[in-house]
Amino acid sequence: MDAPDTRHLTPVLVGPTAVGKTAVALALAALTPVTVISADARQVYRGLDIGTAKPDRALRDRVPHVGVDLVDPGERYSAGRFARDAAGWLAEIRAAGRLPLVVGGTGFYVRALADGLFREPPLEPGRRERLRGWTERLPAPDLARWAGRLDTRFQAGGRQRAARAVEVALLTGQALSWWQREARETGVMRPWYIHLTLPREALRSRIAARVDAMLAAGLVDEVRGVLARGVPPDAAGLDGVGYREVVAMVANRLPEAELREAIAAATRSYAKRQETWFRNQLRAPYAVRSAPDIWTLDATDTPERLAAMILDRWKTVHGAQLTAHDS
Fold it and tell me: How far does Cα 93 stand from its chain's mean position?
């Protein structure tokens, strides 16, 4: 018989981009003291605010957030580093008497928290540095093809993820997915997944509205400002959806008239990959033995009603002792 899982149960709000995760998290924060842990690989970058739909300062003053504005564009920030940082955040949030709520669409970040990190073997520094120089010179499509050849379970996700897959495979002789499956340690929390979904056309509509809002808010100027500070156009962070299309436009590789649809199409494709990941990987064979509770909710309802449903279920099913704010 397996030993009982004594890790703290933690609500994890997941779903594709533009599904409404932030709005639901804010509505939940109006009902009970919540601190949001952002599990978003793009919101970690300082200065990349508009294109990542990062909560603004006023909102973050009202509802505490951690996991945003951690590094400058170009700096590597891995799922492993996120998990190590988040372990400290979880302890601090609980010590303060607040509910930690993990929110995000980056599945690898969520999995690092819930399922644990793999025990990486020692990598020889000299070979690693030479390999890193080679991967940094490769065009992004070539790097992704190498990652796919070396790891048949590799899923697209930007230069950093592809470079990591290539590095681990070549330096250890085993694919990154093998290490993640066979050498995994226990995660730092026991997840209760709330998976927000939308009908396809409703999500397409929200994506279109988000792209329009980002462009109106100054996404192009944000990218120009980052580039003007000397950040390379292919730096980590700028290779994300929305940013790479603006970078292409600034470099005259994409006509300005095609920018909106290029971002919208890339975002739809990204959302589709996220949905596939959440449907399949939350129940992956390398998940914790005590299978996670996964609750799927239709996000066409209002954020306020969804938040009330989540809080009610949290109380009744999991016996959490939470006190709603005074109205």
Answer: 20
Cα 262 to Cα 49, 155, 234, 256: the distances in Å are: 19, 21, 18, 10
Q: What are the extents of the domains in the chain?
A: 9-117+184-318, 119-183
Q: pLDDT of 289-322, one tens digit each?
A: 444 478 999 999 999 999 999 999 998 766 643 4
Q: Regarding the domain delimited by 119-183, which CATH topology (the fold level of the hierarchy) does it fall under?
A: Histone, subunit A (1.10.20)
pLDDT tens per residue, range 153-184: 887 667 878 888 898 899 888 888 787 666 56
SS3 state of residue 327? coil
Q: What residue has token string 């499956």?
A: 181
Sign of CA dihedral 17, 323, 4, 185: positive
Q: How far apart are the C-alpha atoms of 99 and 84, rounded to whole Å?
A: 19
d(CA 313, CA 262): 40
Tell me the Cα Rg of the chain.
20
**Residue 34 to residue 261: CA distance in whole angstroms:** 36
For the chain, counts of helices (H) and of strands (E)? 13, 6
- For domain 9-117+184-318, which CATH number applies: 3.40.640.10, 3.40.50.1820, 3.40.50.150, 3.40.50.300? 3.40.50.300
Tokens representing residue 167 in the block: 């590095």
Residues 211-235 have pLDDT tens digits of: 999 999 999 999 999 999 999 998 9
Instruction: Kindly report the pTM of this predicted structure.
Output: 0.78
